[in-house]
Amino acid sequence: MSRVLVVGSINMDLVVETGTFPRLGETLFGQGFATHAGGKGANQAVAAARLGAEVTMLGRVGDDAFGRELKAGLAAEGIATRWVTETPGVATGVAAITVCNADNAIIVVPGANAALSPSDLNAVEAAFAEADVVLAQLEVPLATVEHAAMLAARHGKPFVLNPAPATQLPPALLAQCTLITPNEYELAAALGEPAARWQDLLARLPGRVAMTKGSEGAYFSDAGGVLRHQLGFPVKPVDTTGAGDTFNGALVAFWPLGLAEAVRRGCAAGALSVTRSGAQGGMPTLAELNAFLGSQS
Q1: Which domains does the chain carry?
Q2: With CB atoms counted within 10 Å of each terminal CB, which end of the chain scores lower, N or C?
Q3: CA-CA distance, 103 to 59, in Å (whole number)?
Q4: What is the pLDDT of residues 54-65, one digit of tens each?
Q5: Which residues fall within 8 angstroms of residue 199, CB to CB, at 6 or more apart?
Q6: For this structure, is 245 an active site residue?
C-alpha cells in the first residue's frame, strides 16, 4: 500500500434535521441534530487509511473543542497528525447543514482551513519527500494548493487534485497535476469550458483525468488518449454523502497498482460507501472492500 500525504480541509459538520426550511426571521423546531467529522481533506484521509494506506494529514484546526476532537478522531483512524496544527484565535472550520426531506442547505465557514499557508508546507517539506503520492482538494487557499503541487514536483511525487469545490484551475497548477479527479461539472469548471462535451475535455488531457459519474462509475483515458470506462458497482444506496471522497481516498491508497486498477477499486469503495449513512461513517475497510469485490466476480 502507498504512503499518502493529504493536504486539505478538516471540518466539523453540524447537521440539523427539520420538516421545512425556515423563512427569513422565522424560528422552527427541528427533529434532530448531530455532529460529524468532515472536510474533504479529512474525509479522503480517512478513506485511504481504512483501505490500508499509511496516511499523513497536513492541515489546520482551531484551538478549540472541535479541533481537538477532530484531530483525535484522525489519530484514532491511524492517520499521522503531527502536521495538523492547532491555530490560536481561529475557530475550527464548520459546515452548518440543514436537512429537509431529500434537500439540504449548507453554509461552510472555513475557519482555520483558510489559515493553511504555503509557509506551513515549507516547514514540513520532509512530508512531501517521504510520501509516495500527494492528494489535495480546494477547500484550503488556492495558493497553498499550488505550493503543494510545486513541492510534490520538486520531490518527484505524483500530485492528485480533486478539484472541488468547482472552480477554474490556473494553467500552471493544472500543468503540475499528475491526475485530476473531478465529476462532470467540476471537469468543465476546472478547464473553463462549461459548454464543452466531457469526452472532448478528457481527450485534451490524456492519462491525466479520472472523472467520476455517479452510479455509472468513472471515465478516464490512458496515456495514448484511449477512453476507458470503469462500470459502477450496483448497490442499493442509503446515503451518497462522501462517495466522491471515498473514491479519491481509495484511488491514492491503491496508486501503486496502476490507474486502471486504482479506479476500479475506487469505484467499488465509493459504491460500498453509499450503502451506509454518513460520509466517514460509510467508508469501508480493506477487508470489507475485498469481500465486496470478491462477491462481484
Answers
A1: 3-9+40-67+77-89+113-296 (3.40.1190.20)
A2: C
A3: 30
A4: 999 999 999 999
A5: 227
A6: yes
